[in-house]
Amino acid sequence: MKKEDVLASYLINVGEEVFKLLSARGAKKEDAEDIIQNTFYKVYTLLDDLTESSIRPWFLGWH
63 exposed, middle or buried (CB, 10 Å; 0-12, 13-18, 19+)? Predict the structure, then answer.
């Protein structure tokens, strides 16, 4: 499997985890989707600066 495919799969899993977290905290479906989409865009623009170990904390706002 290509590195890009592994990363895409990983980000999808993290996105699903964040969606569940946002929903559990009362976010509307559309708002949660917007937050995740905006975060995916930010991750994409910073991909060259992120490492595998720093993506999840960054995505979840633990940076």
Answer: exposed
Cα distances (angstroms) measured from residue 43 to each of 1, 37, 54: 21, 10, 11
Structure tokens belonging to residue 2 = 């290509």
* Nearest CA-CA partner of 37 in 62, 58, 19, 57: 19
The dihedrals phi and psi of 54, each to the nearest 5 degrees, come to: -100, -10
How far is the C-alpha of 32 from the C-alpha of 4, rounded, in Å? 25
Taking residue 12's Cβ as centre, other Cβ atoms within 10 Å add up to 11
pLDDT in tens, 8-54: 788 888 889 889 999 999 999 999 999 989 988 887 887 777 776 77
Q: What is the model's pTM?
A: 0.70
What is the rounded CA–CA span in Å between residue 15 and residue 57?
12
